[in-house]
């Protein structure tokens, strides 16, 4: 089966079924990572690197072996479907939107707290809306485009490596006392694996929205964000939507001075739908490019 068809079927399965409500493999992997940390933790880069290798390498090798079996296509579709979080991202964002439209700020804060790591208890309507849009834009790369990129480049083993490292980064990639050294390997590997996908995502946001604003914001603002990959993605997304995002936010009780991103006014509730629509347009662009690239390579091989 062609790469394009595998990607398309995986996306359709995600749109139809969403994430498994029970026994999601990434949830199981997270529990395994917690168990590994409990017995393997030491405040050194070596222990953190060994923990990442112990958790990720066997699953990559298993998936690579499956790629040589007759039924590898089924596994390819299943792995990519489980790695993509398009449906889940939209569902969570919509829950925040519905709570805001109902003027239920308490529920909106609770729902956005499932999307972001910042403190949400004191956020007002605008801040909740902004946090939701920032999460949608950033997770467009982490939960959708990054997985697709690595599948196109390296098949199911690439998706496994990308998604598991991304999960470990979410668990261990903090610059605090406990994880500063132990989480170093997970954080660096996640940066490396996301470097190209993040910039392709930023370019996709630009090409499917306000391109000029997006490219300017990417060039002038994306490089000053604390994350080298989230910065270009969020800056381009903010510029593409002509919104003002970023700015100070509170994390674990401490106010963090974040740069401003984008242009235009503060986001309104309706802009949550606009952010989700931007991801949908960018996804259609990716599918067209994958299809065209596969057709071109097929014609090239036939000559």
TrEMBL record:
Keywords: Cell membrane, Cobalamin biosynthesis, Membrane, Transmembrane, Transmembrane helix. GO terms for cellular component: plasma membrane. Pathway: Cofactor biosynthesis; adenosylcobalamin biosynthesis. It is a multi-pass membrane protein. Converts cobyric acid to cobinamide by the addition of aminopropanol on the F carboxylic group. One of its GO terms (biological process) is cobalamin biosynthetic process. This is Cobalamin biosynthesis protein CobD. Pfam families: CobD_Cbib. The gene is cobD. It is found in: Cell membrane. The keyword Metal-binding does not apply. It comes from Nitrosomonas communis. GO terms for molecular function: ABC-type vitamin B12 transporter activity; threonine-phosphate decarboxylase activity. The chain crosses the membrane at residues 44-66, 143-165, 283-302. Belongs to the CobD/CbiB family. Signal peptide: none annotated.
């Amino acid at each position: 089966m062609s790469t394009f068809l595998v990607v398309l079927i995986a996306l359709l399965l995600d749109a139809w079924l969403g994430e498994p409500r029970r026994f999601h493999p990434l949830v199981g992997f997270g529990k395994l990572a917690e168990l590994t940390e409990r017995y393997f933790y030491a405040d050194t880069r070596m222990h953190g690197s060994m923990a990442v290798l112990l958790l990720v390498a066997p699953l990559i090798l298993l998936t690579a072996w499956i790629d040589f079996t007759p039924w590898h296509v089924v596994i390819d579709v299943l792995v990519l479907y489980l790695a993509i979080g398009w449906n889940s991202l939209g569902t969570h964002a919509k829950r925040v939107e519905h709570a805001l439209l109902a003027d239920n700020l308490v529920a909106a804060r609770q729902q956005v707290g499932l999307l972001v790591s910042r403190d949400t208890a004191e956020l007002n309507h605008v801040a909740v809306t902004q946090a939701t849009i920032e999460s949608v834009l950033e997770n467009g790369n982490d939960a959708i485009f990054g997985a697709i990129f690595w599948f196109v480049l390296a098949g199911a083993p690439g998706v496994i490596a990308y998604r598991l490292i991304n999960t470990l980064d979410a668990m261990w990639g903090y610059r605090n006392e406990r994880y500063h050294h132990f989480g170093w390997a997970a954080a660096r590997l996640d940066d490396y694996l996301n470097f190209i996908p993040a910039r392709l995502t930023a370019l996709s946001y630009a090409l499917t929205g306000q391109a000029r604003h997006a490219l300017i914001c990417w060039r002038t603002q994306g490089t000053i964000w604390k994350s080298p990959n989230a910065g270009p993605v969020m800056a381009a997304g903010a510029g593409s939507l002509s919104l003002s995002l970023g700015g100070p936010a509170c994390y674990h009780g401490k106010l963090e001075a974040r740069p401003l991103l984008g242009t235009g006014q503060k986001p309104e509730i309706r802009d949550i739908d606009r952010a989700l629509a931007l991801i949908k347009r960018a996804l259609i662009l990716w599918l067209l490019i994958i299809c065209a690239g596969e057709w071109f390579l097929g014609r090239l091989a036939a000559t």
